[in-house]
Amino acid sequence: MKLLAKAQSSQRRLIEILRVIDEADKPIGARTISDSLSDRGYDLGERAVRYNLKILDELGFTEKQGYSGRVLTQLGFRELENALINDRIGFINTRIEEFMFRASFDPDTSTGKVVVNTSLLDKADFEKAADVLLNVFNAGYSVSKRIFIVDENEELPSFEVPAGCLAIATLCSITLDSMLMKRGIPITTSYAGIVEIRERLPRKFTDLIAYTGSSLDPMKIFMARKMTAVIDAVYAGQGKVLTNIREIPMTSIDLARTLLDTAKASGLEGLIGIGLPGEPVLCCPVGAGKIGIAICAGVNGAVAAEEQGMRIKTTPISTLVEYSKMRELT
User: Fold this and answer.
1) Using 50, 70 and 90 to split pLDDT, how confident is the model at 11?
2) pTM (global) more than 0.85
3) Where is 212: in which H helix or E strand?
4) CATH architecture of the domain with range 2-87
5) What's the CA dihedral at 31, 34, 38, 42 to 10 degrees?
6) Quick one: fold of 90-330?
7) Is the pLDDT of residue 84 over 60?
């Protein structure tokens, strides 16, 4: 049984390395792969990654591109597509839980590590993108006005910024979940969805995807399908924005409200709905004895910039950044 477990663990590790390479938009090296695996909960050092890459090379799943790193072969793409779906089920929920545990934001002191999304864009588009991000925040459809900028040839733990580009880290709503959890409130991030905005007010969810049992990040699915109309919500008051639902026990609502108010004073916002015990919030179902809390997704700013024609590659729940390093957009 131990041997079987070891073999299954090895298989999952190899598949996860293939996923990391597949998600990169260029050849990727062992160090970057190791950093990305760490974000996914795999403690695999650079040396161990190199060993596993040799195995993948021998299997014909990857190939080396000079000193730039590895890319997938056609055989590697097929292997990744045929990977056991059971290996992916629940992956995104596990990732969220890991980031909730690793974040350390303290609303009383406005310090600690926060969960961020990262958006890669051309340097020439930065000013225009920053203006869109600020307008989205001022309209109430994002989590924070603070951003962290990574210049070309610099690195975040999850990726390196190529020449001619910038990476903008925006605050992820999972930071608020972490804050509630660290203060003793059991919390479950249950759904991602699209909220319809009418007359500048949130009306109802028009689409929902449950995180539980999902093999893909629901936010990425909605972004890929281009189902939003964030710009319309910001400028016309009629549109569709990305939003997450989390559930907490009804007995913890007073503490949750206090913490969310304290976080707001530190610049963390995005709350657009709190339901009644066991009742839907914005038409999203909630479990018995639970209260649903709807918070706008931190990626809405980047999505709005993309709606404006800018080329942006956004990764939700990307990495952790010290809150003190983030600067407020003005």
Assistant:
1) low
2) no
3) none
4) Orthogonal Bundle (1.10)
5) -170
6) Alpha-Beta Plaits (3.30.70)
7) no
Separation of alpha carbons 180 and 292, rounded Å: 13
- Six-digit token pair at 49? 């990654």
CA distance 329 to 274: 27
Residues 316 and 117 sit within 8 Å (Cβ to Cβ): yes
Proportion of the chain above pLDDT 90, given as a percent = 62
Short-list 34, 25, 22, 92, CA closest to 316: 92
Convert 168-193 to b/e letters by CB count within 10 Å (16 or more is b). Answer: bbbbbbbbbbbbbbbbebebbbbbbb
Domain ranges (residues) in the chain: 2-87, 90-330
pLDDT reading at 33 higher than 50: yes
What is the C-alpha separation between 261 and 48, in angstroms, rounded?
45
Is pLDDT of 4 > 50?
no
Percent composition of the chain: helix, strand, coil (DSSP 3-state, to 5): 40, 30, 30
Residue 9 is given by DSSP the state H
Locate 58 and state its tokens: 């021998």
pLDDT of residue 88: 57
- Rounded CA-CA distance 176/22 in Å is 30
Q: What is the pLDDT averaged over residues 204-225?
A: 83
Identify the three-state secondary structure at position 314.
Answer: strand
From the list 149, 143, 146, the residue with the least C-alpha distance to 166 is: 149
| Size of the chain in residues | 330
Contacts of 3 (CB under 8 A, 6+ apart): none
